[in-house]
Amino acid sequence: MKYTAEALADKAREARRICMQMSYIAGSEGAHIGPALSIMDITTVLYFDVMNYKVDDRYWSERDRFILSKGHACLGQYAPLVLCGFISEEESKTFNRTHTRLAGHPSGIGVPGIEHPSGSLGHGLAVGCGIALAGKMDRKDYNTYVLIGDGEANEGSIWESVMFAKQHKLDNLVAIVDVNNLQYGGKTADLMDMSPMKEKWEAFGWNVITTNGNDVAELQIALDKSNKKRDVPTCVIANTVKGFGLSFIANNNDWHHCKVTKEILERALDELK
């Protein structure tokens, strides 16, 4: 492990600070704050403890790949990319503004660290399958990580990809499901109940690990590469709280997408000290 859990928790807190500052910069365009905060611990552990990459060689062929399928949670990826050095602090101040490269969904056009455009829900896992299969064909040792939402799991294309991955023995593929129990229209259980999530993935032949998606120490263990099984793709069910990290946002679906005023920003930064 590259970082201690304590150091990772500090990184995640700093990433949340950057997230809120970028949300404020977006102004009237607003931002998907709740989903971004939900996944921040996951992306922090991936970028600072799990994945292999080179900031100064973004196309290094042996790098691990990350696809954020729930692209509206882009601040949950942009913030760690700022901390890693892929995105400059100066560019982070252009989020969701005119002519920015940092759009409200990752465009993948020239943005270091973004492997593929995302935002149209249900597509990311299929892309991840293709990248993982290419790695097998090219005899590369990289791993591909795809983060999807529990609401996104309503999409049939997700389950086509789940079957594809098992059929092609993609043991270099890890799907991470952000189970925060909320989506744009309300509670996932009310709109399209996906429980039991773990048993569903297991029924398709995946290696499934369940963890607390807002606990960096547990995530370190769950995402450790030693958990992989030969010829079997891995799914990490990450149970999270939407808006985790800020008391006035946590588990409140009103913050799925909203505008951040100066007062809200100051309250958030005060909590994150």
What are the main properties of this structure?
single chain, 273 residues, alpha/beta, five-stranded parallel beta sheet, two-stranded antiparallel ribbon, 10 helices, globular
SSE order, one letter for each helix or strand: HHEHHHEHEEEHHEHEH
Question: How many separate helices?
Answer: 10
CATH homologous superfamily title: Thiamin diphosphate (ThDP)-binding fold, Pyr/PP domains
Read across the widest sheet, the strand sequence of neighbours is 1-2-3-7-6
Overall, the morphology is globular
Q: Supply Rg.
A: 17 Å
Unreliable parts:
none
- E-strand count: 7
Helical proportion, percent range: 25-40%
CATH fold title = Rossmann fold
CATH class equals Alpha Beta
Overall pLDDT: 96
For the biggest sheet, the summary is:
5 strands, parallel
Strand content: 5-15%
CATH 2nd-level architecture? 3-Layer(aba) Sandwich
- Please tell me the total number of domains: 1
Q: What is the structural class?
A: alpha/beta
Termini distance? 26 Å
Summarize the topology:
Layout: H1 5-25, H2 33-50, E1 65-68, H3 75-84, H4 89-92, H5 124-137, E2 144-149, H6 156-167, E3 173-179, E4 182-183, E5 186-187, H7 188-192, H8 197-203, E6 207-212, H9 216-222, E7 234-239, H10 262-271
Parallel strand pairs: 1-2, 2-3, 3-7, 6-7
Antiparallel strand pairs: 4-5
